[in-house]
Protein backbone atom coordinates (compact mmCIF):
# COMPACT_ATOMS: atom_id res chain seq x y z
CA UNK A 1 0.00 0.00 0.00
CA UNK A 2 1.24 3.49 -0.80
CA UNK A 3 2.48 5.84 1.95
CA UNK A 4 2.51 9.62 1.82
CA UNK A 5 6.07 10.94 1.85
CA UNK A 6 5.51 14.62 1.32
CA UNK A 7 2.42 16.79 1.38
CA UNK A 8 3.18 19.54 -1.12
CA UNK A 9 1.38 22.27 0.84
CA UNK A 10 3.82 25.16 1.46
CA UNK A 11 6.74 23.20 -0.03
CA UNK A 12 8.99 25.29 -2.29
CA UNK A 13 9.27 23.93 -5.81
CA UNK A 14 13.05 23.57 -5.52
CA UNK A 15 12.64 21.33 -2.47
CA UNK A 16 10.04 19.16 -4.21
CA UNK A 17 12.37 18.87 -7.23
CA UNK A 18 15.25 17.90 -4.93
CA UNK A 19 13.15 15.19 -3.30
CA UNK A 20 12.03 13.82 -6.66
CA UNK A 21 15.66 13.68 -7.82
CA UNK A 22 16.70 12.06 -4.53
CA UNK A 23 14.05 9.35 -4.86
CA UNK A 24 15.06 8.72 -8.47
CA UNK A 25 18.75 8.58 -7.58
CA UNK A 26 18.13 5.98 -4.84
CA UNK A 27 15.75 3.98 -7.02
CA UNK A 28 12.60 4.33 -4.91
CA UNK A 29 9.30 3.93 -6.77
CA UNK A 30 6.98 6.86 -6.15
CA UNK A 31 4.10 8.72 -7.72
CA UNK A 32 2.51 12.14 -7.34
CA UNK A 33 -1.04 13.24 -6.85
CA UNK A 34 -1.94 16.55 -8.48
CA UNK A 35 -3.39 19.46 -6.58
CA UNK A 36 -7.15 19.74 -6.33
CA UNK A 37 -8.70 22.39 -8.54
CA UNK A 38 -10.43 24.09 -5.56
CA UNK A 39 -7.35 24.16 -3.35
CA UNK A 40 -8.64 21.60 -0.84
CA UNK A 41 -5.79 19.22 -1.61
CA UNK A 42 -2.42 20.45 -2.82
CA UNK A 43 -1.09 17.11 -3.91
CA UNK A 44 1.68 14.96 -2.59
CA UNK A 45 4.53 12.60 -3.28
CA UNK A 46 3.70 8.99 -2.40
CA UNK A 47 5.92 5.96 -1.96
CA UNK A 48 4.63 2.94 -3.91
CA UNK A 49 6.23 0.18 -1.80
CA UNK A 50 5.57 0.46 1.92
CA UNK A 51 8.52 -1.88 2.59
CA UNK A 52 10.87 0.93 1.50
CA UNK A 53 9.35 3.44 3.91
CA UNK A 54 12.02 3.28 6.62
CA UNK A 55 14.86 3.46 4.09
CA UNK A 56 13.22 6.46 2.43
CA UNK A 57 12.70 8.13 5.82
CA UNK A 58 16.42 7.77 6.53
CA UNK A 59 17.35 9.29 3.16
CA UNK A 60 14.83 12.13 3.57
CA UNK A 61 15.98 12.87 7.13
CA UNK A 62 19.58 13.19 5.91
CA UNK A 63 18.44 15.47 3.06
CA UNK A 64 16.38 17.65 5.42
CA UNK A 65 19.31 18.00 7.83
CA UNK A 66 21.60 19.05 4.96
CA UNK A 67 19.00 21.49 3.62
CA UNK A 68 18.50 23.01 7.07
CA UNK A 69 22.25 23.42 7.49
CA UNK A 70 22.51 25.14 4.09
CA UNK A 71 19.63 27.48 5.02
CA UNK A 72 21.24 28.33 8.35
CA UNK A 73 24.57 29.02 6.66
CA UNK A 74 22.90 31.23 4.04
CA UNK A 75 21.03 33.16 6.75
CA UNK A 76 24.23 33.61 8.78
CA UNK A 77 26.01 34.89 5.68
CA UNK A 78 23.14 37.31 5.00
CA UNK A 79 23.29 38.56 8.60
CA UNK A 80 27.04 39.11 8.39
CA UNK A 81 26.61 40.99 5.11
CA UNK A 82 23.70 43.03 6.48
CA UNK A 83 21.18 41.62 3.98
CA UNK A 84 18.98 39.80 6.51
CA UNK A 85 15.75 41.62 7.26
CA UNK A 86 15.37 42.73 10.88
CA UNK A 87 12.14 43.05 12.83
CA UNK A 88 12.28 46.83 12.64
CA UNK A 89 12.72 46.72 8.85
CA UNK A 90 9.77 44.34 8.58
CA UNK A 91 7.61 46.67 10.70
CA UNK A 92 8.56 49.64 8.54
CA UNK A 93 7.93 47.74 5.31
CA UNK A 94 4.37 46.72 6.26
CA UNK A 95 3.06 48.89 9.12
CA UNK A 96 -0.65 48.12 8.63
CA UNK A 97 -0.08 44.39 8.82
CA UNK A 98 2.09 44.88 11.90
CA UNK A 99 -0.61 46.94 13.62
CA UNK A 100 -3.30 44.41 12.70
CA UNK A 101 -1.23 41.56 14.14
CA UNK A 102 -0.53 43.53 17.30
CA UNK A 103 -4.25 44.27 17.69
CA UNK A 104 -5.09 40.58 17.20
CA UNK A 105 -2.56 39.57 19.86
CA UNK A 106 -3.96 42.18 22.26
CA UNK A 107 -7.51 40.94 21.64
CA UNK A 108 -6.55 37.32 22.27
CA UNK A 109 -4.73 38.28 25.47
CA UNK A 110 -7.71 40.34 26.63
CA UNK A 111 -10.21 37.55 25.93
CA UNK A 112 -7.96 35.00 27.61
CA UNK A 113 -7.16 37.00 30.75
CA UNK A 114 -10.47 38.87 31.28
CA UNK A 115 -12.24 36.01 33.14
CA UNK A 116 -9.34 35.69 35.54
CA UNK A 117 -8.97 39.43 36.13
CA UNK A 118 -12.69 39.83 36.97
CA UNK A 119 -12.87 36.66 39.08
CA UNK A 120 -12.60 38.43 42.44
CA UNK A 121 -14.90 41.32 41.67
Automatic annotation (TrEMBL):
The chain crosses the membrane at residues 99-119. Keywords: Membrane, Transmembrane, Transmembrane helix. This is Uncharacterized protein. The lineage of its organism: Bacteria, Pseudomonadati, Pseudomonadota, Gammaproteobacteria, Chromatiales.
